[in-house]
Amino acid sequence: EDQVTQSPEALRLQEGESSSLNCSYTVSGLRGLFWYRQDPGKGPEFLFTLYSAGEEKEKERLKATLTKKESFLHITAPKPEDSATYLCAPAPGSARQLTFGSGTQLTVLP
Amino acid sequence: EAQVTQNPRYLITVTGKKLTVTCSQNMNHEYMSWYRQDPGLGLRQIYYSMNVEVTDKGDVPEGYKVSRKEKRNFPLILESPSPNQTSLYFCASSAGGIDEQFFGPGTRLTVL
């Protein structure tokens, strides 16, 4: 059975304090792993797609990495505007639908 | 501007009164999907559509109907809403299946 677990559930950082969010998954034949950002009361916004172990992608202060069992979202020198809930969603090879993790709620304090 | 629109944004209704939430996208996307989001349960897929006249159940389809008669529109129908359908609903679309989905602004539904 495909499973996805995100940790921690919530994370509070001081501005400039780097950290990482974790997404652990078990899926058969990973097609891709997606990261989304969601602000309160709004729809998720696409960030990255990772397709194979070892792949990395960057966008501003965010860098996503992928192994065969986990994905990490590294946040370097975060700012208050990075505060949001970050969702990951691994997709199995035959996927026609997406299953999201429960998310990590990040708060960056000024 | 490329976007997914949903209407209404907020709706309060009573048990059993049929309602429709509309979803429209202007990006000529083939794939469209409906999700509900509840505290502690995250985003769960209700129905999805790979193309016109092609729809399929997601993880939580009970109590919902959808139709895809036009490529741009994907309405969500609650024939007889119940309080357990109180939730925040999102419509999404993408060009290539589940890849890079664009989400609408959400519809907050309360069923009394």
Describe the structure.
The complex is a heterodimer of chains A (110) and B (112). With 110 residues, chain A is mainly β. Chain A has strands at residues 3-7, 10-14, 19-26, 30-38, 45-50, 56-59, 62-66, 70-75, 84-92, 104-109. In chain A, the strands form two sheets. Chain A has a five-stranded antiparallel sheet, with no helix packed on it. A five-stranded mixed sheet of chain A has the order 2-10-9-4-5, with no helix packed on it. In chain A, strand 7 and strand 8 form a beta hairpin. The radius of gyration of chain A is 13 Å and the shape is globular. The mean pLDDT of chain A is 93. With 112 residues, chain B is mostly beta strands. Helices cover 0% and strands 51% of the residues of chain B. Chain B has strands at 4-7, 10-13, 19-25, 31-38, 42-51, 54-57, 65-66, 76-78, 87-94, 102-103, 107-111. In chain B, the strands form two sheets. In chain B, strands 2, 4, 5, 6, 9, 10 and 11 form a seven-stranded mixed sheet that branches. In chain B, strands 1-3-8-7 form a four-stranded antiparallel sheet, with no helix packed on it. The N and C termini of chain B lie far apart (36 Å). Chain A binds chain B through residues 32, 34, 41-46, 49, 87, 91, 95-103, and chain B through 4, 33, 40-45, 48, 50, 56, 58-59, 90, 92, 97-106.
Provide a short characterization of the protein structure.
The complex is a heterodimer of chains A (110) and B (112). Chain A is an all-beta fold and 110 residues long. Chain A has no helices and 10 strands.
The level of helicity of chain A is under 10%
How many DSSP helices of chain B? 0
Largest sheet of chain B: 7 strands, mixed
Content of β-strand of chain B: over 45%
> Structural class, from secondary structure content of chain B?
mainly beta
